[in-house]
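Self-study notes.
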Amino acid sequence: MKVFGIKPPRRKSHFYTTRSTSHHTYTNLIKSFVPTKANQLWCSDLSYIKFQGKFWYLATIEDIFTRQIVGANIGKYHDSELVLATVRQAILNAKHFPKIFHSDQGTEFMAKVCTDYLEETGSQISVSDKAAPWQNGFQESFFGRFKDEAGDLNRFETIGQLIEEIYSQIHYYNFERIHTALKMPPAVYAQLVKE
């Protein structure tokens, strides 16, 4: 191609994030809210994982009272489909809807398909203020520790091995790792306070 001066056609960039179609009116409902039982407050976030030069995305939902990760999903794109799948998984796992669902203002969380679904379940939607990640500190803290404890994820040879390790790490966090605030694993605490 170089010899004959031929250049390959360039692909157009594709954006795989969901963009909001309308301005939302959600505010931060949890600034002074302290949950007193399970399923009153779920916080969610997305984090990227770079593996063999490609980005993968991990979505999690944490019950703030029990500190248990009630939903987790991995996907190639950080979009509303990943968020909605994680919300549905969390509802199946908890066998309950959250009273308040909190996230940042990312377009994947604010997509109409996600907000409509949450409102149909009777959940109140809460969002952190713009450029205020500390308002979703529980999830920020979880991801920080999760990545530290998981170590170098590029030690795996295949994406299947990586995904298996991620779910194994979340299982360890829920069922074996002593949570400093609870003095026991979240799943054990969840059983103790079960109504």
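Second protein, same conventions, sequence then structure:
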Amino acid sequence: MSDALSTPDLPLVTRAQLAEAFSRLGVAPGDVVLMHSSLKSLGRMDGGADGAIDAALIAVGPAGHLLMPTHSYCYVNNDGSCAPYDPAASPSRTGLITETFRNRPGAVRSGHPTHSVTAMGPRAAWMASGHAPGGGTFSQSGPHGRYVRLNAKIVFLGATLAANTTYHAVEEWLALPYLPDAPVQVARPGRAPETFVVNRPSGHRSFYRNSGLNLPNPVTEALASRGLIRPAELNDCVLLMVMARDVIRVTTEMELESPGALLCRQDSCAFCELGRHHCVRQREATRRLGLALLAHPEMCDPSHPAAE
């Protein structure tokens, strides 16, 4: 049964309607958009996942770029088992829209074995490059740095900022001390898989893995209080948009002011308590990295032109 017919009691969402909702968010032809998504939030989407992708591509136009997180989390398990990462075959574990997107003709997936990004657009291959398995999980020389320098808009289609991977990019760029290393394996045709060690954004945060606790997330609240999160509605689906550079600036500023800003403040959470302790201990090193990051308008100021 098709996605459009699976819930006949809900109104049908057309590609044109969803494209218009993206436009109300502020998405315009030629934009670079990183989209986090939930197909279920749309109810009855004409064309299912493909229809949602079509609408996003209509919104950015032929000169624009659409990116999605296609994370596979191909870590080596404690018992040594692992499904080696293969960019062409490893499924995306960030939703049906992203899994459909990575299989689209013209889509280019990055080479990182846990947090790959897939891109479509005139320069998709360049957008997805620089994300080798031996490099940073959110390297500034890869897709995450590139979409920020290109002044991307981050869209949340039926998702919340709990899915905001760009928070993790800031954690890595500031070298925050609670990100452990983890082994991964990458498939090699005709040869044994190759093992690498990558930065793993594991553990608890104020914005995810809360098991229904609904903890306050100071950084998301700061973005909202400053009017930096733009909403739009389509039937029961809520769409949100925030500029990538606003996320970088606000998160960095808050980390400099309050070490461990993305960690929760539950007394019972040992991970966040220990992580904050280490953030305080390395506060001066973080300050140097943060001030250097904030000094670059192409990373922190949406009014600055796109830069490569």
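Instructor comment on the second fold: The first strand starts at residue 12 and ends at 13.
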